[in-house]
Write a structure and sequence with these properties.
oxidoreductase, Peroxidase, domain 1, binds 2-acetamido-2-deoxy-beta-D-glucopyranose, single chain, mainly alpha, Peroxidase, domain 2, lactoperoxidase activity, about 40% helix
Length: about 425
């Protein structure tokens, strides 16, 4: 409730911050600027806020009472952002309260599942988390981005149970999730397998693949954010035994999703609009196949509100003489950094997917986009919280799961 109120306060503040956009043009985003401009005063004291009391602090539970600092680890200062975009109307501030809690379907509460706990392996397999972290550290940036995405794909399909890792098996399961259409370029499976192998040698039959995927997603976020996204990930998940390619399309939000569909698909996993917008920041890393967006977003399609110069660049980068499906960076400015640059890309109409652009098209999501763009630290906190929440989706227990011996295969029944 406190969180809701805080967000409400934030939305109110953002609504009032509308004029800040003109100030913003001065320093743009990109805190990489050698002479950092002081952070915007926050919350504004002149607020003619409709709420009687001053807007609550944001985030409410923050241990640091000081006002949020506006900082960016970005080493490469991007040019000042065009802000607000001139090619489209400024999104209207939210007018309806309370904000983003979706009304339906009733979110399944991740909390109703088995209790996960932080440090679950401290006694059962000391050093397990550190081992995963080192495996992730060694991976390149593209694989790290893949590990964040892998966690998402795992949790959204059959819950966080490593079902995404199961390999096709001619006899028992010829069409697991990995063969589903949205699998394009799933990466990082080797890192998970290698960590699992090492953990099996260390403590056989103890550490689930589902937990390794969750730790790896957390650790990849940590490294790609230069340590700024730093959170604990509860564990104790069991591995699932079901993996079906036909479950992928209905559960994974497609790149052409609009706001209503995005909200509904996240709500179906117990994740609200705040979580959804925070997690969308993962599109500040990784690459996308051009086939995922070219049809509806690039010329000759005229339905997209993409910045025309950006579209021209993408068109060129997607053109391949051999007809190959090229890949392009999700965030062309800081492609290997998990940062809030993504939200500036959204604001500037320089994002790949319709589902990214969609975030500006509804008042509540637009306000959250602006908040994330302006307050990196708060977004980093929200991102971590949303990752933990996502990590609780439809978690398996000993009753309906197992600890796999190999992440690619369900354990063989005992035949002694
Ligand atoms: C699975 O079936 C395909 C075609 O029927 C065959 O080529 C392949 O060797 C089989 N794989 C395994 C592991 O049995
Ligand atoms: C996967 O789902 C489809 C459609 O629900 C179903 O027909 C099929 O039997 C399932 N496959 C497995 C291996 O459970
Ligand atoms: C993704 O699915 C395609 C087609 O079903 C398959 O050929 C490919 O191997 C899958 N990707 C991975 C990483 O398994
Ligand atoms: C991350 O958080 C832990 C405490 O949870 C702390 O010990 C560690 O120093 C932090 N790392 C960074 C890079 O901030
Ligand atoms: C978009 O293209 C279609 C068909 O090519 C055309 O009928 C329509 O008028 C165009 N819309 C705009 C806004 O240019
Ligand atoms: C297009 O490719 C060039 C060269 O790799 C790169 O510098 C640029 O950022 C790319 N642009 C986009 C929009 O992906």
């Amino acid at each position: 409730m406190a969180a809701k109120l805080a967000v409400l306060g934030t939305l109110v503040v953002l609504a009032l911050l509308g004029p800040v956009s003109s100030q913003q043009a001065g320093y743009g985003y990109g805190g990489g600027s050698p002479t950092p401009t002081p952070p915007p005063a926050y919350p504004p004291t002149t607020s003619p806020s409709p709420t009687p009391s001053p807007p609550p602090a944001y985030p409410p539970t923050s241990s640091t009472p000081s006002p949020p600092t506006y900082s960016s680890p970005s080493p490469a200062p991007p040019p000042p952002a065009a802000y607000p975009p001139t090619t489209s109307p400024t999104p209207s501030p939210p007018t309806t309260y309370p904000p983003p809690t979706p009304a339906s379907p009733p979110p399944p509460s991740p909390a109703s599942g088995p209790a996960l706990s932080v440090g679950y392996y401290n006694d059962k397999c000391p050093g397990a988390e550190a081992l995963v972290r080192e495996a992730v550290r060694a991976a390149d940036a593209g694989i790290k981005a893949g590990l964040v995405r892998l966690f998402f794909h795992d949790c959204f399909v059959q819950g966080c149970d490593a079902s995404v890792l199961l390999k096709p098996d001619n006899d028992t399961n010829p069409q697991p999730e990995i063969l589903g259409i949205p699998n394009l370029s799933l990466r990082g499976l080797d890192v998970i397998d290698a960590a699992k192998k090492a953990l099996e040698e260390k403590c056989p039959g103890v550490v689930s693949c589902a937990d390794i995927v969750a730790f790896a997603g957390r650790d990849a976020s940590f490294f790609l954010s230069g340590g700024a996204i730093n959170f604990t990930m509860p564990a104790g998940r069991y591995d699932g035994k079901v993996s079906n390619a036909s479950d992928t399309l209905p559960n994974l939000p497609p790149p052409f999703a609009d706001v209503a569909q995005l909200k509904a698909m996240f709500a179906a996993k117990g994740l609200d609009t705040i979580d959804m917008v925070a997690l969308s920041g993962a599109h500040s890393i990784g690459r996308s196949h051009c086939s995922s967006f070219s049809r509806d977003r690039l010329p000759p399609s005229n339905t997209s509100d993409m910045n025309p110069a950006f579209a021209t660049q993408l068109k060129a980068n997607c053109t391949s003489p051999s007809g190959a499906d090229n890949t392009v960076a999700q965030d062309y400015r800081t492609p290997d950094q998990l940062d809030n640059q993504y939200y500036w890309d959204v604001i500037n109409h320089k994002v790949l997917f319709a589902s990214d652009a969609a975030l500006l098209k509804s008042g509540d999501t637009a306000a959250l986009v602006y908040a994330a763009a302006l307050f990196q630290k708060e977004w980093q906190d929200r991102f971590g919280k949303a990752m933990v929440k996502m990590g609780g989706v439809e978690v398996k227990t000993a009753a309906n799961g197992e600890i796999r011996q190999m992440c690619g295969y369900v354990n063989k029944p005992y035949s002694g």
